[in-house]
Amino acid sequence: MYKFSWVGSEKHFVDIPNIQQVNNLTIGRFGGNSSAGQYKNEDGCIVWSNEEQNWEFVVLLDAHNSAESAELVINTITEEEQNLTAIFNMPLPESFNQMDKYIVHIFQNPLFP
């Protein structure tokens, strides 16, 4: 299984387009142009790919003012990896039905900050 996560506070990619090819996925990151006033990047993403089970899972995040919210979502989803991958490995109709319920459950949980 391929796992990748990134938050703009780690490396902002302002003025630096970055493109990676991973199996059937292309991951592109660009933090904007400094000539247009861009100086930081609060975006983020998670990319998981399992060729054996034939699925990909991607979360794209567009945070504003601070990367803290993107970091929080990435950390929360990463902590749920075992439960989420079990859902992804279910038959397709059941997987879609369970996935949306589980993701809503994660972020509506009273323990979520």
Could you walk me through the main structural features you see in this protein, from its secondary elements to its overall organization?
The structure is a single chain. The protein has one domain. 33% of the residues lie in helices and 27% in strands. The chain has helices at 68-79, 81-88, 92-108; strands spanning 2-7, 18-22, 25-29, 44-50, 55-61. Strands 1-4-5 form a three-stranded antiparallel beta sheet, covered by helices on one side. The longest helix has 17 residues, at 92-108. The radius of gyration is 16 Å and the shape is flat. The two termini are 29 Å apart.
What's the layout of helices and strands?
Layout: E1 2-7, E2 18-22, E3 25-29, E4 44-50, E5 55-61, H1 68-79, H2 81-88, H3 92-108
Antiparallel strand pairs: 1-4, 2-3, 4-5
Rounded mean pLDDT score: 93
What is the helical fraction, as a range of percent? 25-40%
Amount of beta strand: 25-35%
User: Biggest sheet, strands in spatial order?
Assistant: 1-4-5
Order of secondary-structure elements: EEEEEHHH
Apparent shape = flat
Measured on Cα atoms, how large is the radius of gyration?
16 Å
How many helices? The count is 3
Q: What class would the helix/strand composition place it in?
A: alpha+beta
Biggest sheet overview? 3 strands, antiparallel
Number of domains: 1
How many β-strand stretches? 5
Distance between the termini: 29 Å
Return residue spans where pLDDT drops below 50 for at least 5 consecutive residues: none
